[in-house]
Amino acid sequence: MLNRCRFSSTLFTWIILGILFQYQFYHRLCRIVQQIFSKQLGYLAMELLLAYIFSVFQRIDEALSDHLHCEELISPLFIVAKILVKRCEPKKQLKSVVVALVLVGYKCIREAMTELSFSTANDFVKCTTPLMKNLIDDSAGQGNNGSHLRAILGTCLNVIADLIKDCIKGIHLLENKRPDLLKLLQLKLSFSIEQMVLFAKLVYESQYCRQTEDSNTICLAVLKYCTKYIQTVLNDSNVQVQAIGLQALKTMTQRSANIEDISFFTFFSGELITEIFHIIHNSLKKPVSKESVAIAGECLRFLVLLQTLSKANECQRGFMNLLLKAIVMIFSASEDDSSQEVSDIRTNAVRLVSSLCSNSFISSLL
């Protein structure tokens, strides 16, 4: 028995060393991890691996000359990390492990200096979403006072909020400068917005919110916090920031795969209608630019999307009324402006309404 333990310990040591130093053989490592790791060793391996991943991103930040070597290292490390994430059984996972996974993922997103390293870290964060969902759902069956979950959600949301603020600040500073860094900041901002919406969706759909007054208070606080930061993005003075926010919302809404998804995005978007109308209003201020035309068009298309996806008749009528109000606003505010940009906004509005009416007519015949 003692020899077997020594053998297991030695084997584990060599696997970790392989992860840390022999990353060029990561395909082989993946098979070893899948076949040999027990649950307990998996958690220990995850702890060591996450620490090393973080140190790699730190190295990228501190020594740009070592970029190529680190870029080659990041991908296989995250591949192994994703395998270990899948080894974490939802019923046995430790809350601290889940939080560590999420926060390290966020830190790696922040530290990413290239689109490749950002993309790799983003893929890893997506793997942690089911774990966070399980953590919230498990709180429903534990019957605790929610203080632990409140702390976990608060920590994660604060990290995302800080990233949103830093990205917006960076976009303002880099406007028309350093297009490579600007693109990376835009990707990070889009990621942060999606994470905010995702947390709002997780608590909105969780049974935990419906259990007690305390749990309901926690979930309402999360929804309010997430809404606040999406509103911050949409209210920003920079048109690029606004466009990123709208695009992220529209993309996530378009991915709605079931009634529950549609219900959430209908609810969440309803909290942002004031900001959408504010964007349309500002886009009509003279002089109207091409960027203003584009952002106004995005607002109208988002309203059309919400009206189209809405299943309840009351919601459909509500979004149709909002869309018509937006179009009336466009024509009323621009009636004394004959510029090409204003003409483009009007044309886009008419096309969207015509398309929507045509689709509604066809649907009524089917």
TrEMBL record:
Sorted UniProt keywords: Membrane, Transmembrane, Transmembrane helix
What domain of life does the native source organism fall in?
Eukaryota
- Transmembrane residue ranges: 12-29
GO BP terms: carbohydrate metabolic process
UniProt xrefs under SUPFAM superfamilies = ARM repeat
In Swiss-Prot or TrEMBL terms, this protein is called Uncharacterized protein
What species does this protein belong to? Salix viminalis (Common osier)
> Which taxonomic lineage does the organism of this UniProt entry have?
Eukaryota, Viridiplantae, Streptophyta, Embryophyta, Tracheophyta
